[in-house]
Design brief:
Layout: E1 9-14, E2 24-28, H1 32-37, E3 44-49, E4 52-61, E5 70-73, H2 75-81, E6 88-93, H3 100-107, H4 114-125, H5 131-143, H6 148-160, E7 173-177, H7 187-197, E8 201-205, H8 215-220, H9 229-239, E9 241-245, H10 254-265, H11 270-283, E10 288-295, H12 304-320, E11 324-331, E12 339-340, H13 342-354, H14 361-377, H15 386-395, H16 398-410, E13 421-426, E14 431-436, H17 438-447, E15 457-460, E16 467-468, E17 473-479, H18 482-494, E18 499-502
Helix pairs in contact: 3-5, 4-6, 5-10, 6-11, 6-12, 7-14, 7-16, 9-16, 11-12, 14-15, 17-18
């Protein structure tokens, strides 16, 4: 015994349990370590191996799946410890989580200052917070919204606990959408336009967790996105822009952890959302950022009042870090483009960049508007001329050529996969499309397999205001397996209001 903690050795066993971002350990309830240390199920414990440690949630096993001298580990725990089959680990009680007292104090009316935010976020990044702790923190931030000093403190802490990029040139531009709108894949188009015009746009993007696709998922069907900081810098210095997965470059790493839990909770507290958006931009070295806020009844931001409040907070916190912003409220009543899912959205992006005649016009228009705003904010063109300039760069092929060069610099362009199974969903009556439920549509695409199955998702055939005749396709589901296709169809049959039709 040392400091009251057991140093009993256990053989590590890889169980292949996948739980992104969460570490788990499984021990037989009758093993010597459990009995001597009094480890309860769902306790937080520390696993140690050759100078490395990880905090994990403990689960008891009462079957013979494990021997009494074995510790079964999830993939996250296995990778963080750098284990090989048969390695020896020790399991001890996790030390008290001192920073959680800051969260408790806030629940009862306190506030988080700079030092408190640093302590909390440092422990989050160190994987000391279980999902229960994270859920409590995010729920408190929703029930009692963060004030502006707290948002600034949280943003600063999130930036300081990861890597930061510094560039020799200026300005460094970026664009962000607060999300919730299926198919709104403007980023690859905007990066191509802006970089082709001569500005620098090092774009880091997220993967879909509870959404059917993130920009990184979409871009990955076209080119590699798992680049190191060194590789990312090389691409940007060569081409002026990139589209890479933010998780591979360790910028504001607490953001991905908080996003994973907030999406599971199915709510987005304004304070953490502001810190989430801006910490990644500040860490990437951005000086000018355009932020897209879709507003609609079934997206994250559902009213003009909520959009105005979010816009004010984003602008104020960004200003505290010397970042200039332009915030644009856009139509969030229906999906953008035709595809919902990585490969389907990638085809929309390519169609717009190549200027194909049947490319989705709404995606093209939105991308051009936002790219124009980036050009104006950075002072690259006069006010009022951004959209026209962005459209010219797209129309004359410069954006497509730049995209090809960026893709090549990131590892080479590839063809998006095609799903082997499809099924059309048709209208049960005549009418006009009056509304589309974006949240339910996103869920259908996920049930079909997106984003884990890159070719899966939904292809939209009708938009608000379009006439529909009975038997006409409203959407087509794409899946990589028949079971996933049937699963999505079963959900659709129970949710007939995804497309709301009215009598013309």
């Amino acid at each position: 015994m040392k400091g009251g903690q057991s140093l009993s050795a256990l053989r590590a066993r890889r169980l292949g349990v996948v739980a992104p971002g969460a570490a788990f350990v499984f021990l037989r309830s009758d093993c010597g370590v459990c009995r001597s240390e009094g480890f309860d199920a769902r306790a937080q414990v520390e696993i140690h191996h050759k100078g490395r440690s990880v905090t994990a949630t403990l689960f008891h096993v009462i079957s013979d799946i494990l021997e009494s001298d074995e510790a079964g580990l999830s993939e996250a725990a296995w990778q963080q410890l750098g284990l090989e089959q048969g390695d020896v680990v020790t399991v001890t009680h996790a030390p008290p989580l001192a920073s959680f007292s800051i969260v408790r104090r806030r629940v009862f009316g306190g506030r988080i200052d700079d030092e408190g935010a640093r302590e909390v976020i440092a422990d989050v990044v160190a994987q000391q917070y279980s999902d229960i702790h994270l859920a409590a923190f995010l729920t408190d931030c929703s029930a009692t919204p963060l004030d502006e000093p707290e948002m600034i403190a949280l943003t600063r802490a999130m930036v300081e606990t990861g890597d930061r990029l510094h560039w020799n040139q200026a300005p460094i531009v970026d664009k962000h959408c607060v999300g919730g709108l299926p198919g709104n894949r403007t980023t690859p188009i905007i990066v191509s336009i802006v970089a082709a015009f001569g500005l620098t746009m090092p774009k880091t993007s997220s993967r879909g967790i509870t959404s059917p696709a993130g920009t990184a998922d979409v871009m990955e069907t076209l080119a590699p996105v798992n680049l190191s900081l060194t590789a990312m810098r090389r691409v940007v210095e060569r081409e002026g822009g990139c589209i890479v997965w933010g998780g591979s470059v360790h910028l504001a790493p607490s953001d991905d952890i908080l996003i994973r839990v907030s999406r599971a909770l199915d709510f987005d507290a304004q304070g953490p959302m502001v810190a989430s958006v801006l910490s990644k931009k500040i860490a990437a070295g951005s000086t000018h950022v355009v932020i897209d806020i879709p507003v609609g009844p079934s997206v994250k931001v559902r009213s003009e009042k909520a959009a105005a409040s979010l816009a004010t907070s984003l602008a104020s916190v960004a200003q505290a870090f010397g970042v200039r912003t332009r915030i644009i409220k856009t139509d969030g009543r229906q999906p953008v483009g035709r595809g919902v899912g990585p490969a389907l959205e990638a085809r929309d992006v390519v169609a717009v960049l190549r200027g194909e005649p049947d490319a989705p016009q709404d995606l093209r228009d939105r991308a051009v508007t936002l790219a124009g705003a980036v050009l104006e904010l950075a002072g690259a063109v006069e006010a009022g001329k951004g959209t026209k300039t962005a459209r010219e760069v797209l129309d004359d092929g410069r954006a497509w050529k730049k995209f090809l060069r960026i893709a090549e610099a990131q590892g080479g362009l590839r063809e998006p996969p095609v799903a082997p199974h499809t099924r059309a969903v048709t209208a049960s009556t005549d009418g006009l499309v009056a509304a589309i439920d974006c949240r339910k549509l996103a869920r259908v695409a996920k049930l079909a397999g997106a984003p884990g199955a890159p070719a899966a998702g939904a292809e939209i055939h009708k938009r608000i205001g379009d006439p529909v005749t009975m038997g006409e396709p409203l959407l087509t589901l794409h899946a990589e397996t028949p079971g996933e296709l049937d699963y999505a169809i079963a959900f659709l049959l129970g949710e007939p209001d995804i497309f709301m039709l009215t009598t013309p």
